[in-house]
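Action item from last week, closing it out:
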Amino acid sequence: MTTSKSREFNFTEVNSILIDVYLNKNSIEAQVNRILEHNLVFENKNYQQWLLKAVSVLDLTTLSGDDTRSNVRRLCIKADRPLSELNINIKTAAVCVYPSRVSDASDTINRMQKQDVKIASVATGFPSGLYDIETRTLEIKYAVSCGAHEIDVVIDRTLVLTGQWLKLYNELKQMKEACKDAHMKVILGVGELGSYENVYRASIVSILAGANFIKTSTGKEAVNATLPVGLVMCRAIKRCYQDYNIKVGLKPAGGIKTARDAVNWLILVQSELGPEWVTPEYFRIGASSLLDEIKKELKLLSTNY
């Protein structure tokens, strides 16, 4: 699993990274296009390998108001054998559920004796994050006590929009402490942050506060995961790795609808951060319907061999 260095940062040091950040929107979008153009995947066998990689990094997700124990049980079974009908032995990285459904996922996975499928839980007032910090940390502790291995916390986006970086940093430190041994994925809600500069700053603060992953979105915003935003977040990850030897992962979520979308994300991350980042330890895709789209593509490819 992903680990970030345990280090206390003086906020003056953190704040020094946040000033004078300027990102050119057109340049970022052009860079994404160049990366994809230079790494086109045409050959069927190569495309199939990218699709299988995408399945292996999926956080198979159900975050509906009508989630039941039986829904979660089916999700866990699918996560363990997502491509069983194609006779391909592979697992998804994790399942992702609400805190109230973590115990259902834990019971199912324990009965299946499949400890390599991780349980992730959203928390901290998902999806808005507009709750008191004490309430949010209690929700983390509850999810961990029910068996969650990973906690997808959501930040209060108003702190980013109003430049309250110290408060955001301190809140994330409290969330990290509440996670204990569980890994913390920090959801930025990029579609509500207003600018690429704010995405970059929020990424830096999250990483230095102890995030194991930074995650684009809740999936509930009008704009979710986009490749240009992904590049901005990759740049923040790279800076913290180069400057502080802190290595964290990236999780895009929301808006990744097609198999080609998933492959493009993998190509972007591998090109920007390196092949060691396109593993379940450092890269996840949060999705609910994407698996079915990937299976359709794999079935089509199998008929062409």
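Closing note: The two ends are 35 Å apart (CA to CA).
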